Amino acid sequence: MRKNILFVLLTPFIFITQISAQCWDQVCLDGSHLMAIKADGTLWASGYNAYGQLGNGNTSNTDTLTQIAIGTYWKSVAANQYHTSAIQTDGSLWCWGNNAFGQLGDNTTTNKDVPLQIGTDTDWVMTAAGLYHTVALKTDGSLWAWGRNVNGGIGDNTTTNRHTPLKIGTDTDWKFILTGYYHTFAIKTDNTLWGWGLNEDGQLGDGSTTDRHVPVKIGTDTDWKQLTTSFYQTMAIKTDGTLWGWGNNGNYQLGDAVTWPDRPTPFQVGTGSNWQTVATNYDHTIATKTDGTIWAWGQNTYGQLGNGNNTAGTSPAQSGTGTDWIWTMGGQYCSVALKSDSSLWGWGINSSGQLGDGTGVDKNNPASLTPACSSVGIAPPPVTPVVTSVQVSQGNKNSVEAFPNPAVQKVWLSNIEGEPVYFLVNNMGKVISEKSYDATGGIDLSQLASGLYIIMVKEQKIRFSKE
Predict the structure, then answer these.
(1) How far apart are CA 344 and CA 253, in angstroms?
(2) Statement to judge: residues 115 and 254 lie in one domain
C-alpha cells in the first residue's frame, strides 16, 4: 500500500558565471535541483539548495543556471533531492549536500555545501544518487554503495546505514546503475536486470512487494535498453523499442489508463515499438519516440506534462507538435528536455528555480532555458542512456564529423588526416575499442547493438547513432 508522504517542495566554490550558448554533455534533474555538465567539462547548477546540494558554498536557492567551482574536469554527475555525486575526469569521486545518513561517504553525517572528494581512489566510472543513499561502479566492474539502508537499498544483506563506500558482493560484471528513492537497480554485462531495496509497490518488478536486501535478478530477459525509476514506479525500453512499466500507478504514471492495482512485474505499455527515451519521477512520465516527438502521462498539477494545461494524462499522449526532441528527464513535478539543435527546454514547477531560466515561474508548455548549442553535440546522462543521433559542431573547418549518421554497418570521419588513434565509447561511458583510424575501411559497427555511441579523436567528441 502506498504511504501518504508530505514533501517540502524541493526544487551553486563560489564562482558564478551566467549560462552561455555552449553544448551540454549531461543534464541531471531530480527532486528540485538541476545539475549539468558542459562539453568543456564545467559544472553548472540551479534550484533548491537548503542542504548545499548545488555545491556553491551556501544554502540559498538560485533560479539561474550558474557555474559551480572553477575547472573543466567534470565527467559525470548524478543528483537526487538533497545531495549530488559526481566523477571527475581523473576518476575521482566527489559528493556534496545532505549527509544525514552518511550518503556522501566521508564517514561523517555532516552536510557539505561544496564538492568533497570521497577517498583517494581514481577508478570510479559511474555514480547514482538515491534520496539518502549513493551507488557507484569502478573500472573493474565492482559495485559499491553507502548511506541509508533501512529498506536494503545498499544491497549488503543488512539494514545498517553505511557512512563510507562499501563493496557489494564479489561480482565484477556490473555495467550500469540506477537509484530510486530507497531502492537500486543495476544491469550486468549480460544485460540481465537486478534490483534491491524498497519494494512496497512492486517497483523492483520481481513479482512481489517484499523489500530485497541483496541484488535480485528481475526476470530472465536480456534485452533491456534503457531504465528509469523514481519513488514507487519504474519504466524501461527494450532493444526492440517497446515500452514497459511496473510498480505504483496511482496517478497513471505507468501509462496504461488504470490506476490500481499496482504492477509488481514488468508489463508492456501499448503496442508501439518506436520509443527512444523515457524518464519518470514521482507521479509523471515523459518520453521521446524515434520520430522526435515527445509524449507524457501521469500527474500534471504544475504543467509537468508540457501539454499546455494542468489536466492529468492517463496514457501516453503527444505534447505539442515538435519533431526535434532527442532526450528528456523528469524532476519532481517538472521536466527538462533537449532538442536536436542542442537547446535545453523545461516546464512544470519552478518555484525553487529548478528550471534555471531566472524566472521562478511555473510553466505548462516547454520553455527555452538555454540557446542552441554552438559546439559539440549533446549526450544523455548516464542514468538514462540511449537517444538519437546528435550533431557535431558546424561551420568549423577543423571539426570532425561522423557520416553517415545514423549509421548501420560502418561509419567514417570527415576532416581527419593520417591515422590518428580513436576511442569508440558506448553510451554508458565504457571504451569498446581503441584503434588507428582507417579512412579506407572506416569504423566497423557490425558487432554493435543499436544505440548512441561516441568517437573520441583529436580532442573531440563525435556522437552518432547506430541503427
Answers:
(1) 24
(2) yes
Please report the pLDDT score of residue 398 as a whole number: 55
Which of 291, 355, 280 minimizes the C-alpha distance to 27? 355
The verdict on residue 441 lying in a domain is yes
CA angle 48–80–99, rounded 5-degree value = 85
pLDDT at residue 124 tops 90: yes
Instruction: Note the pLDDT tens digit of each residue in 429-457.
Output: 567 888 888 877 789 888 887 777 888 88
Edge-first strand order for the sheet with 43-47 is: 24-30, 33-38, 43-47, 62-68
Section 185-212 average pLDDT:
96
Report the amino acid identity of residue 225.
K
pLDDT digits (tens, 9 = 90+) for 354-367: 999 999 999 999 99
Side chain identity, residue 445: L
pLDDT reported for residue 431: 73
Q: What is the pLDDT of residue 373?
A: 56
Let me know whether 174 and 264 are in one domain: yes
Same domain, 330 and 205: yes
Is 150 domain-assigned? yes
Number of domains in the chain: 2
The CATH number given to whatever domain includes residue 433 is 2.60.40.10
**Residue 70 placed within a domain:** yes
Provide the 10 A C-beta neighbour count for residue 217: 11
CATH number at residue 182: 2.130.10.30
Query: The whole model's pTM is what?
Result: 0.77
Which set of grid coordinates corresponds to residue 300?
500534471
Is residue 397, in this structure, part of any structural domain at all?
A: no
Write the Ramachandran bin of 152: left for phi over 0, alpha for psi from -120 to 50, otherwise beta: left
Where a domain ends, among 368, 387, 419? 368
Domain boundary among 346, 368, 390: 368
Same domain for 423 and 354? no
Domain range for 415 is: 402-466
Residues 295 and 438 in one domain: no
Percent of the chain clearing pLDDT 70 (strictly above): 88
